[in-house]
Amino acid sequence: MITKLEKGALRSMDGFAKRTEEKQQAILRAAYDLMTEKQSRFKISELAKRAHVSPVSIYNYFGSKDQVIVEILKQMTEEQMSWIEQAIESNAPFDALLVEILKRKIQTAVLFDETITAIIQQDPNWEQLATRGYTAFARLIEYGKAQGSIDSTLSTSSYLRYVQFMQQAILSDPQFSIENMKETMDVYFHFFLNGVMKR
Length: 199
Known about the structure:
mainly alpha
């Protein structure tokens, strides 16, 4: 049997956990807003002020600014994968689904600069998450084939390689600048949807 004292302690722990979660989410929301404004070019002091927490809280919860950024990108990737799965389960039209995904990617392009790209490439967990993301995209390709929306004679791996090669080409291009990220992504997705031939 749980005593009144123990019940009070449990309620106190629940309240502490709730406040901790609220602070963590406030930090992530504030960091996302700062990233849309200045990518990685913000300080912990700015983040603390925007989130209405102390800098110590940020370090206690996440360890560093880099880990805050990684957590934001991780949650965004997880959300996108879940959204793809739910859309497929609901039999959403492939064309509309693909366009919506591409729009989301373009909208998130403004978050990236060279520093953030380096951060995610160095994170030991990012490769596993990226692999899951490609798995979700592979399922989307199979879904498009089943609906007759894309060429079913091409292998799913070839679609995935195409996406990977394009991403690598963009990131390795010495003429590429972060300032032109959105324009570059627009062109990339035009090629994906329409190819290179004039229609």
